[in-house]
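Format notes (please read before filing issues)

Several people have asked whether sequences and C-alpha cells are stored in separate files. They are not. Every record keeps both together, in the order shown below: the sequence lines, then the C-alpha cell lines. Line labels are part of the format and must not be stripped during preprocessing.
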Amino acid sequence: MAISMPKPSGEILGRRAAIVEALRSIVPGEGVVDATNEMRVFETDALTAYRQLPLVVVLPETVAQVAAILSYCREHRIPVVPRGSGTSLSGGSLPLEDGVLLVLSRFNRILEVDLDNRCAVVQPGVTNLGITRAVEHAGFYYAPDPSSQIACSIGGNIAENSGGVHCLKYGLTTNNVLGIEFVTMEGEVIRLGGKHLDSEGYDLLGLMTGSEGLLGVVTEVTVRILQAPETARAVLIGFPTSEQAGECVAAIIAKGIIPGGMEMMDRPAIHAAEAFVHAGYPLDVEALLIVELDGPKAEVDHLLAEVEAIATANGATTARVSQSDEERMSFWAGRKAAFPAVGRISPDYLCMDGTIPRKELPRVLAGMKALSHKYGLGVANVFHAGDGNLHPLILYDASKHDELQRAEDFGADILRLCVSVGGVLTGEHGVGIEKRDLMTEMFDEDDLKHQIRVKCAFDDRHLLNPGKVFPVLHRCAELGRLHVHRGQLPFPELPRF
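Then the structure lines:
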C-alpha cells in the first residue's frame, strides 16, 4: 500500500519568494523559517517513515497573525498544514511541498486556572502534562494522558481526539474539552463552548475535536480539570496466554467494574519495557494486565479483591498490588515507556491504532499472530485493553529490502481485521495519511461524500491539510452533481429546482 501525497503545484512553487516575503510582513523577526537546513526539523512527525520539506514554516505568536496567515493563504490558494508538537503517529502533520506549515508551538501559555469552575484556559501549544503540572498543587489534574504527554500539545490532542491510559473511566479529549477558540480558513475567529457545562445548538465543539486540522486552527482551549481521587492502587496480573488476558478484560467490564485504567502488554513488550524501566514486571508470562482502581479507600480495597478473583478465574498465574504511590507510578512508567523501549529491540517499528469490541480481543490477538507469521515480521502489543484500543507495534528494519512495505501491508491487514469484527480504523491516533487509503474499508462512497460536505462548509477550497483523511479529494463543486446516462437524468419524474 504505497502512500502518496497531492502533486505539488508548480505555480505555487514558482511564487515561493513572494509568499515568504508576504509571511514575513505578517510575522516579523524569526517567525518565518525558509532555509532548507532549518526546515529539516519539521519535515516529518512521529510517523517517521515519511518525510517532506514544506514550502515554508511560519511560527505565529498571536491570534491576529494566525488569522492574517490563513486569510492570505486562502486568497492566494496556498495549502496550509497546522502543526503542534509533531508527535502525530498517523502523519497528520506531514508537510506539503507546496504548502505553508503553520506551527503553533509559540502558543504555549496557560491563560487561566479556574478552580471554582474546575477548568483551565490554555493555548494550544501547552503540553498535555503541563496542564496537570499547573493544577496539581491544588489537588487537581487533567485526565487524558497519552504516552507522549510530556511532549504532545493540547492543540494536537484536540486534532486527533487523543486518549491515554486513564480514558477508560474519564473519557477521551472530547469528553474533557469545554470550549475552544479557532480560526477558519477565511481568517474568522470563532468561539465554541466555554466554562459552562454544555452549549446550545449543534455540537460543533464535538465536530472540531478529532477533525485533524481539516476544519480550522485552534488558538485557545478550555479544558475540564478533575480532583485527584482519594486513593489509587494498581495491580500487575500475569497470564500464560494473551487470549486469557483478553478474556479477563471482558470479564472485569462485564462485572460492572470500570477501572481508572486497564492496559495490556504481551511478552515482547513486557521484556522491552522491563529492560528499559526496571518496573518489576514478571518475565515468565505471555501477557500482563495493569489494572488501576481509584476512589474512596474502602471501595478501592473491595474492587481490588474482586479483580483478583476474576483474574484467578481466568487463569492468572501472578498478581502484585502496588503498596505505595511510588510503586503504582513505577507500574505505569513501564507502560508509558513501552514505545521507546521497543525501539531498543528493533531498528524501526510502525505503531498501529485500531479499536475493536472488547469481546473480540482474543480473536483479534490470534489473527495478529497469524499475520505475523504471514509477513515474517514480529509484533509487540501494547494497548488500552479496557476500551478495545489496540496499539500493535510492527517490528521491521527499513534498511532491508521490502521490509517497510511488508510492515505497511501487515498494518493494513490488522486494521482490516479490526473493521471486520465490528471495530474501527482508529481510536486516538487519527487517520492522517497512514489510514487514509483504508477509509473505504469502513465507509462507502456516500458516507465519504457526506464527510467531505462538512469539510466544504468550513474550507471550500480544500486548503487546510489536504491529502489527509479522505482517500479521494473531491472539489466541493463536484459533490451532489447528477450523473447523466445516455442523455437521461436519474429519476426523471422528480421535479428539479
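For reference, the curators noted about this record: The chain is about 35% helix and 20% strand. The longest strand covers residues 231-239.
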